[in-house]
Amino acid sequence: MVEKLLQSGIHWEHKECKRNEFLKISGSTDTQIYYIEKGSVRIFMTDENEERIIRFGYTGNIIVSLDSFLSGKPSELYIQAIKKTMVKVASKKDFYEFIQADEQHMKFWMNILEDLVLQQLEREKDLLINAPKERFERVLKRSPNLFQEVPNKYIANYLRMSPETLSRLKKS
């Protein structure tokens, strides 16, 4: 279905993001949806000047600052390329016209939303687990590609542990 979305009547712009370039910054409203053709991004917010990574996106993922996209209000989230990343970008208007044009398109959007809700619930469970090893194992089982796509320092931040602890867990 993602292929159908990409080949639909939606106007997709191709964008190349350099390493560390932002697709979205805190305080802005996200009126676009992104498909990652190649590369990886991190979605994070800052808390007392410390970055808190809440999600990653990599090749084949659709990403968006969902709170802002749905509400039309500014979000505290940043979306930043971790490495050189190629994305397709579509406007919210074009995307909504696509999903409203056909029942299958709407089901596709509902599947994306359901998947995001389930991912968020898993993330919340991860944050409630005190044991670093258990958090690591849950994420490894859920997203094995993550460890090929994303540098350890970002994964460690996401897992709420030091890079040294993550390195130790990966070796054991």
From TrEMBL:
Pfam families from the UniProt entry: cNMP_binding
Membrane-crossing residues? Answer: none
Cited Gene3D superfamilies: Jelly Rolls
Which source organism? Answer: Chryseobacterium nakagawai
Q: What is this protein called?
A: Crp/Fnr family transcriptional regulator
Domain Cyclic nucleotide-binding, residue spans: 1-99
Q: Which InterPro entries match?
A: cNMP-bd_dom, cNMP-bd_dom_sf, RmlC-like_jellyroll
